[in-house]
Each structure stands twice: as C-alpha cells, then as structure tokens.
Amino acid sequence: MSIIKHGGSQLKTSVEVAEALIQEHKAFTASLRTCVNRLDALTRSGNELAAQDQLHRDRILDKLSTLKSRLNNNAKRSELRGRVLEENFRLQEYFREVDEIEDWISEKSQVLDSLSMFAKHDVVSLFTKVQALQDEIEITRETADKVVKHGRQLVDEYAHLEPPVNERTEKLRLHWDELVQNTQDAILALSHSQTETDYADMLARRDPRRAYELKAVVDTLSK
C-alpha cells in the first residue's frame, strides 16, 4: 500500500482506509462539540465566580481564556484535518476508478495476446473475436472518458492534487492507446491473412501445382 504525503501528514492510499479515517474524524468532531458545550457551561460558571471573587478573578479568567484558546486551536486543526481527509477520500476514489479501467485493459490485452495461439487457418473465427474486442473497447471508452473527466474535476477543485492525478491519467491514456493500437494491428493482420487465404484457395482450385509450389516457398521463408 503506497503513501500520499499531504502537508505534514501521511495518508495511506486506499478508499477503505480513507473512509475509515473520515469516520474516526467524525467521532472526534462529535467529542469536540461536546467539549465546546462543556466549556460554555464552565465559562458561565467561571464568570460568575470571578465576579464574586475579586481576589482570584484574574486567575479564573486567565484559566478560562487558556482553555478557550486551546479548544479553538483544536477546532481549527480538526477542520483542516477534515478537509484533508475528504480530499484524500476523493483522490482514492479516483485511483480506484483508474485501477478498474487498468485491470480491464490488462485483461483484454491478455485476451488479445492469447489469440495468437489459435490455428492460423481459423482466420474467420479469430477475426470475429478481435472485432468483438474492438466493440468492447468502444463500449468501455465512455467509462474511461468519465474517469479522465473525474480527474480533471479533482484538479479543478484541488490544484495541489494535479501531480498524482496527471501521473495516473497519463499512464491510463498510454495503456488505453496501446490496447487500441494492438487491436487495430490485429484486425489489419487478420484482414491480410484472410485475403492471402482466399487467394491460396482460389489458386488451389485453378492450378494445384502452382499452389503447391507457392506453399513450399512460403514455408521455406517462414523457417
């Protein structure tokens, strides 16, 4: 699990962990509100006591002021922490979306690689499989575009998140383009192969001897 640094803090990169941290912070915020209410009650009592006890008045008021200052400081830090955790959660959601597309690309790349294991004479079947993959790519393109758009929105809201977002976005674009290019190359190669197969079949019917000689030459060049 990688770590993202934010200011002086370090946040683990996981949607689940980020969400758990937010829940913990909400519990802390609730306890902080309880402290505020208790301090309000204590302040009222302290002010009344200070008005009645001139000898210890300054000491009482100083103590109340110190408590209020510390509580305000904790409240400000808590507010900042809440914003950081929310940003981190949004970022981890984006990373998870990217990971899902990356996993899909990896899966389809493996499918494309495995097609080369099929017999070359089954060109029509291979062509159908690659075309089906191309259709899947077009269907998934909309989802991938939404993920990229989500990344841009994050950067618009949180400019300091631009480096990690751009890094993941560019890697996603690169892997996506590679899959698209490899699929197109496979379709082109199969189209050429189908043309050659059709020509060989036609030649075999019209001139079997010529077809045999041509096959021998091709086999020799393929070794």
TrEMBL record:
A Pfam short name:
Spectrin
Q: Which UniProt keywords apply?
A: Repeat
Q: What is the lineage of its organism?
A: Eukaryota, Metazoa, Spiralia, Lophotrochozoa, Platyhelminthes
Entries under SMART domains matching the protein: SPEC
| Gene3D superfamilies, sorted | 1.20.58.60
The name of this protein is Spectrin repeat-containing domain protein
InterPro entries in UniProt? Spectrin/alpha-actinin, Spectrin_repeat
Which species does this protein come from?
Answer: Dibothriocephalus latus (Fish tapeworm)
Q: Which domain of life is it from?
A: Eukaryota
